[in-house]
Amino acid sequence: MRGSLVLEDGTVVQGVFFGNHKPVFGELVFNTNMTGYCEALSDPSYRGQILMMTYPLIGNYGVDPATLESNEIQVRGFVVREACPTPSHPKSKMGLDEFLKKYGIPGMSEVDTRHLTIKTRERGTMRAAFGVEGADVDYTLKMVRQTPFPDESNLVAEVSCKRPIVHKGNGPVKFVVIDCGVKENIIREALNFGDVVQVPYDIPSDDIMRLKPDAVVVSNGPGNPAHPEMLASTVKTIKELLNNVAVTGICLGHQMIGLALGGKTFKLKFGHRGGNQPVKDLRTGRVHITSQNHGFAVDEKSLEKTGANVTHLNLNDNTVEGISHEEMRVFSVQYHPEASPGPLDNKYIFAEFARLAGRH
């Protein structure tokens, strides 16, 4: 079945459906990774979005469920130049088409993704929709323009766990992970240093302290860190924890730590999504290539009178990639240390988290 991808600026491109054949609305974003489509599709940070891959051939190594970052596909739709129909890999359990069908998610191939990526970089992130063949394109465009951006909703509530989950690890540290849409690999890396208790995003700080953690990790996740419901729950909890326990954050967690310290956040024009973002550690002068997936950032100027120090900067646009504090045991990074572009890149961050807890 053929269909259309309709963008809010009036752009309409034709493509071929795979996976589920149905109309969906979302925010069109692009990812520049050559591999990792299984991890990206299942990353809770993509909740509410239509994901477009810039690499032209996707699906060639199939789908291995062991690589998924959550228990379902999180994106609303998937856009590729070419979807490989005959994957080949010894660990593959199914093809991309079957994977999308399993979770009821539509994909669209034979799309000029290079053209759409350039348009997104110039225009900024846009709302978009899939329309099935024969659908009224003008009506679809009207509905796209009337549909709110996904980050106007509390997307974290959709992906956070509903009750505490205990994971037994291999070390002396006890982490409490505030689950704002945590990736499985963050849990796996933390388990190398000790036990992990995964808790809902809106858990009160008193309940966290009763668990007697060595450190609290605020996870990645989707949406706007300054959403009113996030300010009233997770950000409030972080403020109450800062003087009582070591606190660390990744991605959305980093942004909410910035808010808790008195800073502000803003939405990026088209976000950082891919595995080739250069980040400079201002403490050492070393540049790391990082994996990222976020649409918001911490405003550096807003941190000037908060006691927070910027520890990392993105060398592409000079946005804040890490912060610490002069007096509190707090440290966070914007990028994903658990999603290394190479075998070991940036995993040292988890050792820093353990040291911050005073147990490594």
Write the SSE topology.
Elements: E1 2-7, E2 12-19, E3 24-31, H1 37-41, E4 49-53, E5 57-58, E6 77-79, E7 82-83, H2 96-102, E8 106-109, H3 113-123, E9 126-132, H4 137-146, H5 156-159, E10 165-167, E11 173-179, H6 184-190, E12 194-200, H7 205-209, E13 215-218, H8 228-241, E14 246-250, H9 252-260, E15 265-281, E16 287-298, E17 308-314, E18 320-325, E19 330-333, H10 348-356
Parallel strand pairs: 3-4, 4-6, 5-7, 6-8, 11-12, 11-13, 13-14, 14-19
Antiparallel strand pairs: 1-2, 1-9, 2-8, 3-9, 10-12, 15-16, 15-17, 17-18, 18-19
Helix pairs in contact: 8-9
Brief summary:
The protein has 360 residues and is an alpha/beta fold.
Features:
10 helices, 360 residues, Rossmann fold, single chain, 2 domains, Glucose Oxidase, domain 1, alpha/beta
Q: Let me know the largest β-sheet.
A: 10 strands, mixed
| Average residue-wise pLDDT | 96
Strand order of the largest sheet: 10-12-11-13-14-19-18-17-15-16
H/E series: EEEHEEEEHEHEHHEEHEHEHEHEEEEEH
In percent, how helical is the residue content? Answer: 10-25%
Assign the CATH class of the largest domain: Alpha Beta
Structural class label: alpha/beta
Count every beta strand, where a strand is a DSSP E run of 2 or more residues: 19
Q: Which percent range describes the beta-strand content?
A: 25-35%
Shape: globular
Q: CA-to-CA gap between the ends?
A: 56 Å
What is the CATH architecture assignment of the largest domain?
3-Layer(aba) Sandwich
How many distinct helices?
10
What is the CA-atom radius of gyration, in angstroms? 20 Å
**What is the CATH topology of the largest domain?**
Rossmann fold
